[in-house]
UniProtKB/TrEMBL annotation:
Species in which this protein is naturally found: Proteiniphilum saccharofermentans
Family: Belongs to the peptidase S8 family.
InterPro entries with a match to the protein in the record: Peptidase_S8/S53_dom (IPR000209), Peptidase_S8/S53_dom_sf (IPR036852), Peptidase_S8_Asp-AS (IPR023827), Peptidase_S8_Ser-AS (IPR023828), Peptidase_S8_subtilisin-like (IPR050131), Peptidase_S8_subtilisin-rel (IPR015500)
Protein name according to UniProt: Peptidase S8 family domain
Keywords: Hydrolase, Protease, Serine protease
One Gene Ontology MF term: serine-type endopeptidase activity
Catalytic site positions: 154 (charge relay system), 186 (charge relay system), 356 (charge relay system)
Length: 408
């Protein structure tokens, strides 16, 4: 079957839905990674249109709203002007022609992105706060993330959740045909940890309780998505002045595989706009069986902090990935086992485990640091995160600099 026009997503969504036995790695579409040493965008647009006869849209076409593939109509290609990347949905023979053209770009397949596998857990409520809030010293911090914009790119958010009825929330969905409503629950859980406050009994489970929440729905209600949706979300968050960008999502990486250039371009763009980015290291390991997997993509990018998961005894989560590849280091660790947080209604709360749960802890703590140092650059906040972390008697390839700790 031929790849669809970019604006016709039924085929794509059907083919990237998680399957029990076979989860695809690629969407069937491709990125053209343009040469950053010269201004290739206009030349590439002309090449796509005149040489290959493609209908081309660009992110510059979307002035009043972020790019959404539902609005691309019959476009064959979408050029991300700010990133120097073009997404194309064309026949395989045309892709071969592009690869052989030698026209100043690389051609790489677009990845399918997933929520890391969740791990069931038991409730962890104790002494009026979750163990993660307690051990990261969030309760002792005078900061709440006030006025700091925090973006969480995930499965969306349950905007009806009663714990957030007084909060400032900005939402956008990049998933074709799906509003921002989180019918999965994963995104609501991550936002609860990063930016939530207390449950109906007054138990504290969220870190940056006064942050301005930016919800970018980049994964479907089935928990999967196309890489371009994540790139759109990253650019949207950066252009809206978000200081923190949290991504509890990823694609598996093979041993020896390098980081994804498209993600790295988006991360560098976000950094240039003042945003610090963190992503889940991944849940593909089975340490108890001696099986270790590399840090997932996009967490393996140099410009993105990779977050590992530890339990309440400060031991590495059995599932947490390891720094195996040279370009995929683990930067820092956070609570990721038995993490209690908000969930889509009517469940309201759920306790689960994963590096997905650890990542929003670091995001929330970064927001506290941005409140403490409002004029700081992302590099300065990253340095504060590293300096303030609690050293652990564990290898850095497993936990990086140690446990993330809130500022005093």
């Amino acid at each position: 079957m031929q790849p669809p026009k970019l604006g016709r997503q039924t085929f794509l969504k059907d083919n990237i839905a998680p399957a029990a036995s076979n989860t695809p790695r690629y969407t069937g579409r491709y990125f053209l990674i343009l040469d950053k040493n010269s201004n290739e965008v206009l030349e590439t647009i002309r090449l796509l249109e005149k040489r290959w006869g493609l209908s081309v849209a660009t992110t510059a076409d979307f002035i009043t709203m972020p790019p959404n593939e539902n609005l691309l109509k019959d476009a064959d290609a979408l050029v991300f002007n700010e990133l120097g990347i073009a997404l194309v949905g064309v026949e395989e023979d045309k892709v071969v022609q592009m690869k052989l053209s030698g026209s100043g770009f690389m051609v790489v397949p677009e990845k399918v992105v997933y929520i890391p596998d969740e791990v069931s857990a038991d409730n962890d409520i104790n002494n009026g706060a979750t163990w993660g809030i307690d051990i990261t010293k969030v309760l002792h911090s005078p900061y709440t993330g006030a006025a700091v914009k925090v973006a969480v790119l995930d499965t969306g958010f349950d905007t009806t959740h009663p714990d957030f009825k007084e909060r400032e929330i900005t939402t956008t969905s990049f998933v074709p045909d799906e509003p921002v409503d989180d019918l999965h629950g994963h995104g609501t859980h991550c936002i609860g940890t990063a930016c939530g406050s207390v449950n109906e009994q007054g138990t504290r489970y969220g870190v940056a309780s006064d942050a301005h929440i930016y919800v970018g729905k980049v994964l479907s209600n089935q928990g999967s998505g196309a890489q371009s949706w994540i790139l759109n979300g990253m650019a949207w968050a950066a252009n809206n002045g978000c200081k923190v960008l949290s991504m509890s999502l990823g694609s598996p990486v093979s041993e020896g595989e390098s980081y994804d250039i498209a993600y790295e371009r988006a991360a560098q763009f976000a950094l240039s706009k003042g945003a610090l980015i963190m992503a889940a290291a991944g849940n593909d390991s089975q340490r108890s069986k001696g099986l270790f997997s590399p840090v997932s993509s996009p967490a393996d990018c140099p410009s993105i902090l990779a977050v590992a998961a530890v339990d309440s005894e400060l031991q590495v989560g059995d599932f947490s990935n390891r720094a195996i590849n040279p370009s995929g280091l683990v930067d820092i660790a956070a609570p990721g086992v038995n993490v209690y947080s908000s969930w889509s209604m009517p469940a309201r709360y759920r306790t689960i485990s994963g590096t997905s749960m650890a990542t929003p802890y670091v995001a929330g703590i970064a927001a506290l640091f941005f409140e403490k140092y409002p004029d700081a650059t992302p590099a300065m906040i990253e340095e504060e995160l590293r300096k303030n972390a609690r050293a652990l008697p564990l290898p850095p390839e497993d936990v990086g600099v140690g446990l993330s700790i809130a500022p005093k």
